[in-house]
Amino acid sequence: MTQHNEPITYAGAGVDVEAGDKAVELMKASVKQAQRPEVLGGLGGFAGLFDASALARMEHPILATSTDGVGTKVAIAQALDTHDTIGFDLVGMVADDIVVCGAEPLYMTDYIATGKVVPERIAAIVKGIAAACRQANVALIGGETAEHPGLLAADEYDVAGAATGVVDKADLILPESVREGDVVLGLAASGLHSNGYSLVRKVYASAGWGYDKHVEEFGRALGEELLEPTRVYAADLLRLIRTDGVDIHALSHVTGGGLAANVARVLPKGMGARIERSTWTPPAVFDVTQRVGNVPQDDIERTLNMGVGFVAVLPAEQAATAIEVCAELDLPAWRMGEIARTENLDAAEAEIISGAKGVDAGACQIVGSYA
């Protein structure tokens, strides 16, 4: 048996426990701001505690849960050494999925894996997560930072999160509520959000564009545009859902798979959305990305959100009220289409998308040209 002459320590193997402890100390102030009255205990316990006694006042509480990451957008954050915005992407991807069924997200935990714990970098990531949680009225009640030397480079990391929410069964938003003649509203995205970055990064790398390149159409550097944080919709959508005179029949979070696929999956079988491109103009980043990469339209629309972060389906007579509520929340919204029976959608006019994400649900087609 060969014995190593020098003692091998955990620190020598690349794991710095003291750096991890310092990171926790640096993030405490941020986490403290992302709380709700129901949170029990402080940071550092083996489990986050949340007082769920309020659920007893619901007639039939249903828990909703979601977990996600932010994909390869973290590569851009690492390249630019900017880490305090990626948290908005994480909270948006997780908490906003929960609102789709009408649930209120209550609490969230995060997980950060990195090749080397740099306390200031970890604290910056958590600062963004906490700020986004505060915006969504979600408590950040725990998390984990893992140091993986040899698996990840010293400056590499990935983030993931999970959240839990609740809704009374009577208030669940289910596909069965959707009716023929309902209106489809588009809710504006803040930019690319957190999907399709493998395509986006490939486009600009192939063109030789550095992240410091000033792009006239953006009015800022490419990297700044690509790091634009995901809009967090949770609190605003709950306001809309709870507005008198607004009966939301369906909500769709436009994430991986693009607009049509994500709308189709929240509609009942036999119903389809007909969406008109002429009702909005996608932000410049979508047009520039498509032109620089010569990306086919069907491919870019199946990959990116095209400027639509969320979709709401509701009765036609309530559309104007919903748009007014969104305007008060500084959330641009517009009427972009309507619901019809799938059999009445004209396949000769545009492709009809259905069966996305393995869901046997409704359908969606997008017609015309962008404004």
From TrEMBL:
Keyword vocabulary terms for this entry: ATP-binding, Cytoplasm, Ligase, Nucleotide-binding, Purine biosynthesis
Q: Which Gene Ontology BP annotations are present?
A: 'de novo' IMP biosynthetic process; adenine biosynthetic process
Its subcellular locations are: Cytoplasm
Q: Which reaction does it catalyse?
A: 2-formamido-N(1)-(5-O-phospho-beta-D-ribosyl)acetamidine + ATP = 5-amino-1-(5-phospho-beta-D-ribosyl)imidazole + ADP + phosphate + H(+)
The annotated pathway is: Purine metabolism; IMP biosynthesis via de novo pathway; 5-amino-1-(5-phospho-D-ribosyl)imidazole from N(2)-formyl-N(1)-(5-phospho-D-ribosyl)glycinamide: step 2/2
Q: Which Gene3D superfamilies match?
A: PurM-like C-terminal domain (3.90.650.10), PurM-like, N-terminal domain (3.30.1330.10)
Main subcellular localisation:
cytoplasm
Q: PurM-like C-terminal domain: from which residue to which, for each copy?
A: 179-343
Per the database record, which ranges form the PurM-like N-terminal domain? Answer: 57-167
Q: Does the keyword Amino-acid biosynthesis apply?
A: no
Checking NCBIfam families in the record gives: purM (TIGR00878)
What the record says about family reads: Belongs to the AIR synthase family.
Query: What is the protein named?
Result: Phosphoribosylformylglycinamidine cyclo-ligase
**Which organism is the protein's source?**
Dermacoccus nishinomiyaensis
